[in-house]
Amino acid sequence: MTVGVSAGLCAAVSATGATSAPTAAVTAAFEPLGPSAPDARQWLLTELAKPEYEAAKPSWLDRASEGFLNWLSSLVVPSDGNLGGFLPAVVLVIVIALVVIAFIVFGRPRLARKMAADQTALFGSRDLRSSAQLRASAAAAADAGDYRTALEELYRALARRQAERTIVRLTPGTTAHGFAAQASECYPMHAAGLAQAARTFDDVRYLGGAATREAYLQLVALEKELRDRPPVSRQPVPERVLQ
Fold first, then answer.
1. What is the spatial distance between Cα 241 and Cα 175, in angstroms, rounded to a whole number?
2. d(CA 164, CA 65)
């Protein structure tokens, strides 16, 4: 009897061992595969770093606009009519509106006038080159066949040289004709040549006129003639304002 029970138990154990191996294999086959927590975090950071996600982020202007709109929407007049806490916000809005109106009325026309003056000025506010540097620039442009630049630079050299000698007074807003008017009072015998040089400068620079070698050579002769010539008057002449 004991032998029979033992044999039965052995058979049961053998049967159980035989079926457990396939079950473990099936379980392992259907076990879900996935990254570890550190790998998943790194994948997410890599994905969010792509340009399309960066472009979708709100800019500082978007955030500022949203904050301002939220602030405006919070400005609700209390139902009890007490404006004690509401008054500073009203004052701030009025001040901002006045600043904007003042800029539109006064700032923009002044800025437009300044830009127009800079466009017609003989020298820009940052052009501090000497007459020798301007002459060298003109000569280099002429050697390259760029007579437009050569004429402009040589006329500036003529004006700068007279300013260096304190014959004329130049400002950032001085025009070609303004310089010619001053210099003509100091060199009356060359008034016609100075006026013609100013017209050529404006024609070439602003009106799209042709810049020729002949015009450049005429200006070369005038610049050499006046470079160190004593003026009729030794006192600086105030600049005329020409319309």
1. 9
2. 53
Helix (H, G, I), strand (E, B) or coil at 242: coil
- Give the pair of three-digit tokens for residue 70: 């939220």
Query: If you average pLDDT over every residue of the chain, what do you get?
Result: 74
Give yes or no for residue 63 having a pLDDT over 60: yes
* Cα 101 from chain centroid (whole Å): 25
Q: Does residue 233 register a pLDDT over 90?
A: no
With beta carbons less than 8 A apart as the criterion, state whether 159 and 227 touch. Answer: no
Residues whose CB is less than 8 angstroms from the CB of residue 191 and which lie 6 or more positions away in sequence, other chains included? 184
In 3-state terms the chain splits into helix, strand, coil percentages (rounded to 5) of 70, 0, 30
Within 10 A of 196 (CB to CB), how many other CB atoms are there?
Answer: 16
* pLDDT tens by residue, 104-138: 666 555 554 444 444 546 776 678 899 999 999 99
Question: Quick one: which of 59, 60, 94, 102 has its CA closest to 75?
Answer: 94
